[in-house]
Amino acid sequence: MDVFEAVAEPNRRHLIGLLAERDRTAGELVDSLPALTQPAVSRHLRVLREVGLVDVRPDGQRRIYALKPDGLQRIDTWIAPYRRFWRDHLDALQQHLENR
Amino acid sequence: MDVFEAVAEPNRRHLIGLLAERDRTAGELVDSLPALTQPAVSRHLRVLREVGLVDVRPDGQRRIYALKPDGLQRIDTWIAPYRRFWRDHLDALQQHLENR
DNA sequence: CGCTTATATACGCTCTAAGTTATAAAACTG
DNA sequence: CAGTTTTATAACTTAGAGCGTATATAAGCG
C-alpha cells in the first residue's frame, strides 16, 4: 500500500482532515466515524502509519495521532508538474472573459 | 470509482504522464505498457474517462486520448489546505539551519 | 465485399481491501 | 489484585479491482 492508495479511501481522508486541525487520540478518531467499528478505524490508522502519513505517540493508555508533514507532500510532488494544465486552462478562460 | 482511486493505480498514473506530454491514440498507450494486454489498457482508459481525467475523440478507426485539465485539479483542491503543513515544516527547518 | 487493423466489451479467475466479531495486551482505577 | 478502559490484532467473510483469453464492433483496404 502506497500513499496514493492510502488517500484513495474516503474514511482515511476524513481522518487526515481531523488530524490537520489538531492531534487526536485513537478514541476521538473512532468517535468521528460512527459508521465504523473501533477495529475498522484502528486498521485505517495503521495504514496511515505504514505509509508515513501520521505519527503516533503513547500517552499512558492512549495513543495520540498526529499528521506527518511530509506524507502528503509526495502526492503534491507528483501532481505539481500537471498544475500548469488547469492554470493554462484558467488563463485561457480569463483571457476569453476579458476580451469579450 | 472516483478520481482518487483512479489515480491510485500506477499504470493509470503512467498513462496520465504520457498524455501530459501530448495526445495519443489508444494504440500508442497500449504500446507504452508492454506488461499489460490491450484489453487491460483499454479498461484503464475507460476508468480515466469515467472519472473525467481524459477525453477521447475518434479519428477514423483510432481513438485519440487527451488529458482533461480540470480532472486532476480536484485532487489539488483537496490537498491545497494541507500544503501549509510541509511549507511550515520547511520554514522551521530553514530557520533552524540559518540560526546555527 | 472478404480481410485486416484498432478498440472496446464479456466472462471468468484471483487477490486483496475493508468490514465484522472476538480476543489480546496494556495501562489505569478502586 | 480484580475490573474497566483503551487500543491493537486475529480470524473470517464479502465485494470489487485488475488481469488474461476470447469475442464483438467498426473502420480501413485490396
Automatic annotation (TrEMBL), chains A, B:
SMART domains, per the entry: HTH_ARSR
Where is each HTH arsR-type domain found? 1-87
Q: Does this UniProt record's set of keywords contain Mitochondrion?
A: no
**CDD domains listed in its UniProt record:** HTH_ARSR
InterPro entries linked = ArsR-like_HTH (IPR011991), HTH_ArsR_DNA-bd_dom (IPR001845), HTH_MetalResp_TranReg (IPR051081), WH-like_DNA-bd_sf (IPR036388), WH_DNA-bd_sf (IPR036390)
**Which Gene Ontology molecular function entries are recorded, alphabetically?**
DNA binding; DNA-binding transcription factor activity
Alphabetized, the UniProt keywords read:
DNA-binding, Transcription, Transcription regulation
Under the heading PANTHER family, the entry gives: TRANSCRIPTIONAL REGULATOR, ARSR FAMILY, TRANSCRIPTIONAL REPRESSOR SDPR
Name of the protein in question? Transcriptional regulator, ArsR family
The source organism is Lentzea xinjiangensis
